[in-house]
Structures are given as C-alpha cells and as structure tokens.
Design goal:
This protein is mainly alpha-helical. The chain contains five helices and no strands. It has two domains: 1-30, no CATH class; 41-90. It is 52% helix and 0% strand. Helix 1 (8-15) crosses helix 2 (19-27) and helix 3 (46-65) crosses helix 4. The protein starts with 7 loop residues before the first helix and ends in a 5-residue tail after the last helix.
C-alpha cells in the first residue's frame, strides 16, 4: 500500500494513528521512535515518598526513646497526637500496659 501523495487523514486511517500524530511525524520524523518501555518506574510517587519519610521518622523516634515499640505502634501514637490538635476526644495518646510500665515514662 502506497501512502505517498495521500492526505494526512487517509494516512492516519491506514496506519491507525491520530491525525495530529501523523502530522507531527511527517514534520519531525527523526524525533519519533518505537522503543518499548522497560517498565522501570523513573520517578517515585508521592505516596511512596510519604511512606518512606514516615518510616524513617518512626525509626528515629524509636531510637531516641529506647523503648520496645514496634514501628506501627509509634505511627499510631503519632496519628493520635496529630488528632489532638483538631479533635478534643482524646486527652492523651493511648499507651498499653507494657508502655506504661516502661522505664522512660
């Protein structure tokens, strides 16, 4: 099938591309390539950044407290402490019995 001398609309229908893509390809054919994407994520999304920062912060808090707390428990306490500024339902962060008996409190 020869596409030489055809209109952009006819070429776009023949190759199943959008009309603008065909037009841009004809204008700048050296910039277009058919390299397949490798699947590697080039940037880190905001959710992963926030999660990583939260983990680093809780690890640092655990190191300062020298307590036998899990990372998840520290995150829960921080979440409760953040809510204190907005809601007055919780008077203080909830500690379990093993945390109340800890030597640092």
């Amino acid at each position: 099938m020869r596409l030489v001398g055809k209109k952009i609309v006819e070429i776009s229908v023949a190759v199943n591309w959008y009309r603008n893509v065909v037009s841009n390809y004809l204008k700048h054919s050296d910039k277009y390539s058919r390299i397949k994407h490798s699947g590697v994520i080039l940037t880190v999304d905001q959710w992963r950044k926030r999660k990583r920062i939260r983990h680093l912060a809780t690890n640092e808090i655990k190191a300062k407290l020298v307590a036998n707390l899990r990372r998840h428990r520290v995150q829960q306490l921080l979440k409760d402490a953040i809510r204190l500024g907005y809601e007055h339902k919780i008077a203080k962060p909830r500690f379990t019995l093993c945390h109340k008996n800890a030597p640092f409190l």
